[in-house]
Structure prediction request, 93 residues.
Amino acid sequence: ALLEAMAAAKPIIASSVSGTVEAMIPGETGLVVHPGDSEALAEAIVEVLSDPGQAESMGQAARRRVSRSFDAGDQASRYLALYRRLLHEESER
Prediction:
C-alpha cells in the first residue's frame, strides 16, 4: 500500500519500521514518526494537511521515487540477474 500511495502522488506519513524508510525519503516524500507515538502521528498529519503546497511537493517527490526506484520492469530485471547469478554459482559447485 505504501508504494501504491507514493505512485498516486500522495505524501506518506508512516512509522519508522522495516521497509518504510527504505521505500521513502523522510522529509522529501513524506514524514516518519516513531512506532506507537500517536502524538507525533497527529502532528505529522496536521503538518501535511495544513500546508497543501508541501503535501503536493512531497506527493510528486514520492511519485518520482517510485517510478525511478521501484519500476516493475526494473525489479523484474534485477530478479532475473539475481537468479542467473545464483544459477551460475550453483553450476560452479
Q: What stands out?
A: The two ends are 40 Å apart (CA to CA).
